[in-house]
Prior knowledge:
The protein has 521 residues and is α/β, with parallel strands linked by helices. The chain is 62% helix and 6% strand. It has 24 helices and five strands. The protein has helices at residues 3-14, 17-41, 46-56, 68-77, 83-86, 88-105, 110-122, 124-128, 135-155, 158-172, 178-191, 195-220, 225-232, 243-256, 258-266, 277-300, 315-325, 328-354, 366-373, 375-386, 396-406, 423-426, 479-494, 507-512; strands at residues 390-393, 411-412, 437-441, 454-464, 467-477. The protein has a five-stranded mixed beta sheet. β4 and β5 form a beta hairpin. α7 (110-122) packs parallel to α18 and α11 (178-191) packs across α16 (277-300). The relative contact order is 0.11.
Amino acid sequence: xxxxxxxxxxxxxxxxxxxxxxxxxxxxxxxxxxxxxxxxxxxxxxxxxxxxxxxxxxxxxxxxxxxxxxxxxxxxxxxxxxxxxxxxxxxxxxxxxxxxxxxxxxxxxxxxxxxxxxxxxxxxxxxxxxxxxxxxxxxxxxxxxxxxxxxxxxxxxxxxxxxxxxxxxxxxxxxxxxxxxxxxxxxxxxxxxxxxxxxxxxxxxxxxxxxxxxxxxxxxxxxxxxxxxxxxxxxxxxxxxxxxxxxxxxxxxxxxxxxxxxxxxxxxxxxxxxxxxxxxxxxxxxxxxxxxxxxxxxxxxxxxxxxxxxxxxxxxxxxxxxxxxxxxxxxxxxxxxxxxxxxxxxxxxxxxxxxxxxxxxxxxxxxxxxxxxxxxxxxxxxxxxxxxxxxxxxxxxxxxxxxxxxxxxxxxxxxxxxxxxxxxxxxxxxxxxxxxxxxxxxxxxxxxxxxxxxxxxxxxxxxxxxxxxxxxxxxxxxxxxxxxxxxxxxxxxxxxxxxxxxxxxxxxxxxxxxxxxxxxx
Length: 521
């Protein structure tokens, strides 16, 4: 794989629509085939298992994120709970996003549109990711919002702006980072205000109201858990650091690829390939829609680690802006780099898939890896207890992973963390008073902390692929002791709702502490 020859090929393709179209379809077929294999072979990650649990118990909202991915998984689970079926949206998302990019740019130049669509397929997260998470619907709705917004800016029709608002409503129901996109749309609309742009902005707001209204209503009736998680509880480790901005810069270069990231940050200093007022307007809007959210992440990176997946939905405007500004040679180099980088990723994935799991036995996280990769063997080991015990774990990640393998809800025993606390909504510990509970632990030293919550406790160990799991067999669950020692701590730590948020309805306090408040002191 010679980068120079690949650059030469892509440079020729960039100016020829038929070559660019063939290159796109080759990329679609090859990457979709590879990703389909990975979607079928890769065990469900803990995040995916957690969201699959949402699909089993659909609602208007969930503890830490808006409900869209849960709604999608609820529909897919009615077809099958097989991981390949549940991952179909993630499998199809890159091609759909690339199609949106192609449809947006084809009115400017056919070869340009195919080349940009190919680059969208090849950027890292699109080239290999198959996990079904909240980022997948956000990617699709964000790309739809941007495509519809640019079409509306061109047509000036109120209906097109309203449709962009509806798409933004879907994004807001997917993940709260859609708010960054909403801010970028606002900035672009008011940066050079005209009656048409301000009227269009108003129609976008009208279209986005249903998603916002659903979220506000559900949160107000349920202790504001999304607000508590995203603005209060998850930031205990936040603080000024020089490392996190550097990590963010590296993440940005990785997600966009260095050629796209560098050009986006420095701007373009050459005459763009596509001239005209319409193309200039699109370039300006796309740069706002990419840079405003990424700049907000840059500010946040001063005190917080920015996850790679947080950036996924803003790849679309960045790549399209790059395509509209790049000359043939620059686009060819970007395509060649992305193709080689994608090949390296798949080489690593293939190597890891070929290695036996025991290769990683010396790694500290090996028990967690075994629990994820060999959950079927763990589920088989738990079979003798399933008819007589409630199955539990001490963390949300193992509980979700085991629950997916067993096809049932596995509860979380203990205070847990600020993340993934939807079990607080699903589990009513009052109903477990006196029941027998089997607690599956990855670390034996944690077992003794549960003794006080049972009349009698016995311990055993199960070994799977060299990883030891502690099984705590608790007979006679003591609900009142657990409420006073654990649930009250959870109330104070995670349900201290700020007084500036209206409403008093809270499932946690209403259930366990009707005489106490879920309010910050």
